[in-house]
Amino acid sequence: MEYGCNINADDILITNGCIEAVSLRATLTPGDVVAVESPCYFVLLQMLHNLNLRVIKVEAVP
After folding, report:
1. What three-state secondary structure class fits 34?
2. Closest alpha carbon to 19 in 4, 40, 3
3. What CA–CA distance (Å, rounded) separates 54 from 46?
4. What is the pLDDT of residues 3-52, one digit of tens each?
5. Which of the 8 DSSP states describes residue 45?
6. Residue spans of beta strands (DSSP E) within the chain
7. CA 1 to CA 50: how far, in whole Å?
8. How far is the C-alpha of 48 from the C-alpha of 15, rounded, in Å?
């Protein structure tokens, strides 16, 4: 909300790891936005790019 996003809980899907997230690609369509923790597994970024998904990197808090 601090970034000016207008979303609700039904717009968010949280997964337990990148493989689970990518296996849920049936719920995603090209152009959808996916938030990933940064830094993240580089191959995940490649996979999301190949699926034509938009990626938002969220900085990990140490």
Report:
1. strand
2. 40
3. 11
4. 677 878 887 777 776 666 666 666 788 899 888 888 888 888 888 888 89
5. H
6. 33-38, 54-59
7. 29
8. 15
The amino acid occupying position 62 is P
Tell whether omega for the bond before 39 is within 30 degrees of 0, i.e. cis.
yes
Angle 26-7-5 from CA coordinates, rounded to 5°: 120
Which residues have C-beta within 8 Å of that of residue 42, sequence separation ≥ 6? Answer: none
Task: State the pLDDT confidence band at 55, using cuts at 50, 70 and 90.
Answer: very high
**Entry pTM:** 0.59
DSSP readout, 2-47?
TT-----GGG----SSHHHHHHTGGG--TT-EEEEEES--HHHHHH
How far does CA 56 lie from the centroid of its chain?
7
